[in-house]
Amino acid sequence: MLTGEIVIVLFLSLGQSAVYAVVSLIAKLTAGKPLSSQSAVLNASRSPRPYLDLTYQLLEIGFSLVPVALVLYLLMRDQTPVRRELGLTADRKRFDLGWGTLLAACIGIPGLALVYVAQLLGLNAQIVPAALQSVWWAVPVLVLSAVQNAVLEEVIVVGYLMTRLRSMSVQVIWVVAASAVLRGSYHLYQGFGAFVGNAVMGVVFALFFLRFKRVMPLIVAHSILDIAAFVGYTLLPDSWLTWI
To answer: Which ranges form a coiled coil (predicted)?
Structure first.
């Protein structure tokens, strides 16, 4: 019963993204040119008309969070105390912000090095974190997109998936592996380096959740990483981006 539920939830959300990521990677590898010379664009414009583009961006952010509502509903339906089991509360702000910032620093700096090495080895596409038009709403939308990514991934890949697998008496090592491999797989459109980096991040986040039973610090850490990447790429001068 729960196996079927997990499969359906994942194929409605990040499992679906993983399938598309695999297809995207295969397309890049068979395009007749090196992977490192191709690009993976995040947060692209949807329309040349600024306010129509804004509408599309906000709709995408909103609808992307529907699977989060679904998994919380499913857990609560089965009498799972979501606030306690997932740590989705705002009563430990210092803990969440402190650990979230520390995790972001510990993962973000080595992550940049890994992306750089993977690019040199031809194992990664060139990542373009943001490609929105130069409009007043670009930065707020990028911040919202970063938070949306964090909430979606941490609630589903860590909170929901690990809680369900543990309730099925799956061994801890396989619970951690499933969460980490799923996280890496939907980043495959960026290349093999992105898969490895995100899988390692997945192991760290999964172990943290097992220890503290809180996804809030993970949401904070993920938000910080994505905001730094999206907004930094948008605001930094082109000369800096070329050097980086």
So the answer is: none
* Per-residue H/E/C for the chain: CHHHHHHHHHHHCHHHHHHHHHHHHHHHHCCCCCHHHCEEECCECCCCCHHHHHHHHHHHHHHHCHHHHHHHHHHHHCCCCHHHHHCCCCCCHHHHHHHHHHHHHHHHHHHHHHHHHHHHCCCECEEECCECCCCCCHHHHHHHHHHHHHHHHHHHHHHHHHHHHHHCCCCHHHHHHHHHHHHHHCCHHHEHHHHHHHHHHHHHHHHHHHHHCCCHHHHHHHHHHHHHHHHHHHHCCHHHHHHC
> Tell me: the pLDDT tens digits for 46-74?
999 999 999 999 999 999 999 999 999 99
- Give the pair of three-digit tokens for residue 90: 């705002």
- The pTM for the full model equals 0.93
Of 240 and 28, the one with more pLDDT: 28
User: Distance of CA 225 to CAs 16, 29, 64, 121, 150, Å?
Assistant: 23, 28, 19, 24, 9
Greatest distance between any 2 Cα atoms in the chain: 55
Q: Are 6 and 161 in contact (CB under 8 A)?
A: yes
